[in-house]
């Protein structure tokens, strides 16, 4: 069984272009957790992103799951923290059962051999809008976008490109950008004139040169802090998860956004090796891919479902303002998880050094 899984993993890594990174990191084997939650099968420790996202995802998925399965869901942050996940699994002290992973982090988790393969019968692939997005370690949960935004009180007109965001002479004011490299390098290259269809493989040196031009005019924050900075009008333009921006709009802040050059990401739920409550994690993934939780995620967060039947229910008028639909896909692009799986560790180190010198 283990040999078969090793072969399956190597084939997937080859497909994703991350085999060399995986080989360099070495095999970790199956880990046993010493977490304080390890003996309590009534728990599920979920690593997400905190803030309003956590509140919404709890009400849409994890609170109903907890009630249905009589499980206590304990939430923490760290869904994008590859280094922390690596340290826990390597030390055989895994404290998380379920990780809310974006495409770029998923590829790095797999490259480092941090994830537990999922049961093949967990979800019927025919239910998904694109079964090819399934990996041995993940099932696509929803699609989300990161869009250009601007404060309409501070900036007159519209920002329709990342070049506009970088143009502080024409559109003065502080920029609010992501602290994650896998959202920042792409938009820096687009701001420098790289066409959408020529974006990958990323020209890292050119991206950092572009970022050098904006850094004195920008702050680089996590999503929750960025939403707060937009709400308090400390920043006037930049990039943010569209669902968070819509929450800011509903609170009364006059912000606008564009679908041009928007970035689309596929969100995954994954289980780290040594997860103390593995069965609960598998059950949570299966639950999240049911039609009703998918509808609640769409309703509460505005994320595009991955279950075909739910997608087909969406009114065309609503689909025009959702990520990854036929209406918005033509002006946006998908983050290339393959590239980040292969290069993410090296770029992340350079990124941290760059941030330290702002």
What is the strand and helix layout of this fold?
Blueprint: H1 2-16, H2 19-25, E1 43-48, H3 51-69, E2 72-77, H4 82-90, E3 98-101, H5 103-111, E4 139-151, H6 162-166, E5 175-178, H7 181-191, H8 204-214, E6 218-221, H9 223-231, E7 237-241, H10 242-250, E8 255-270, H11 278-288, H12 291-301, E9 304-305, H13 308-311, H14 316-319, E10 333-334, H15 337-356
Parallel strand pairs: 1-2, 1-3, 5-6, 5-7, 8-10
Antiparallel strand pairs: 3-8, 4-7, 4-8, 4-9
Amino- and carboxy-terminal Cα gap: 49 Å
The overall pLDDT average reads 88
Q: Order of SSEs, N→C?
A: HHEHEHEHEHEHHEHEHEHHEHHEH
Helix fraction, binned, reads: 40-55%
Q: What is the overall shape?
A: globular
Tags for this model:
10-stranded mixed beta sheet
Structure description:
With about 350 residues, the chain is of the alpha/beta class. It has 15 helices and ten strands. It has helices spanning about 1-15, 20-25, 50-70, 80-90, 105-110, 160-165, 180-190, 205-215, 225-230, 240-250, 280-290, 290-300, 310, 315-320, 335-355, and strands spanning about 45-50, 70-75, 100, 140-150, 175-180, 220, 235-240, 255-270, 305, 335. Strands 1, 2, 3, 4, 5, 6, 7, 8, 9 and 10 form a ten-stranded mixed beta sheet that branches. Helix 3 packs antiparallel against helix 12 (about 290-300), helix 5 (about 105-110) packs across helix 15 and helix 7 (about 180-190) packs across helix 8. Residues about 1-40 have low confidence and may be disordered.
């Amino acid at each position: 069984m283990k040999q078969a899984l090793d072969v399956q993993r190597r084939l997937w890594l080859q497909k994703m272009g991350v085999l060399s990174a995986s080989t360099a990191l070495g095999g970790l084997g199956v880990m046993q957790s010493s977490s304080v939650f390890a003996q309590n099968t009534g728990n599920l420790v979920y690593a997400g992103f905190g803030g309003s996202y956590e509140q919404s995802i709890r009400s849409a998925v994890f609170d109903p799951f907890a009630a249905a399965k009589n499980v206590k869901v304990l939430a923490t942050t760290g869904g994008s923290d590859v280094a922390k996940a690596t340290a826990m699994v390597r030390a055989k002290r895994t404290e998380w059962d379920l990780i809310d992973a974006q495409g770029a982090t998923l590829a790095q988790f797999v490259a480092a051999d941090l994830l537990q393969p999922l049961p093949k019968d967990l979800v019927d692939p025919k239910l998904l809008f694109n079964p090819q997005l399934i990996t041995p370690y993940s099932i696509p949960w929803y699609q989300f976008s990161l869009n250009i935004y601007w404060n309409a009180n501070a900036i007159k007109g519209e920002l329709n490109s990342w070049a506009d965001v970088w143009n502080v002479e024409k559109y003065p004011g502080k920029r609010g950008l992501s602290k994650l490299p896998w959202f920042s390098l792409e938009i820096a290259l687009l701001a420098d004139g790289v066409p959408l269809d020529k974006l990958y493989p990323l020209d890292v040196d050119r991206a950092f040169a572009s970022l050098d031009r904006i850094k004195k005019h920008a702050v680089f924050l996590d999503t929750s802090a960025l939403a707060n900075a937009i709400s308090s009008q400390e920043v006037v333009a930049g990039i943010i998860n569209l669902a968070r921006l819509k929450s800011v709009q509903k609170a009364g802040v006059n912000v606008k956004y564009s679908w041009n050059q928007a970035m689309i990401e596929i969100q995954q739920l994954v289980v780290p090796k040594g997860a103390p409550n593995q069965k609960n994690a598998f059950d949570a993934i299966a639950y999240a891919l049911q039609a009703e939780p998918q509808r609640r995620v769409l309703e509460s967060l505005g994320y595009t479902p991955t279950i075909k039947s739910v997608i087909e229910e969406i009114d065309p008028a609503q689909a025009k303002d959702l990520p990854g639909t036929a209406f918005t896909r033509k002006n946006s692009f998908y983050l290339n998880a393959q590239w980040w799986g292969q290069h993410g560790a090296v770029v992340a180190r350079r990124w941290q050094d760059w941030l330290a010198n702002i």
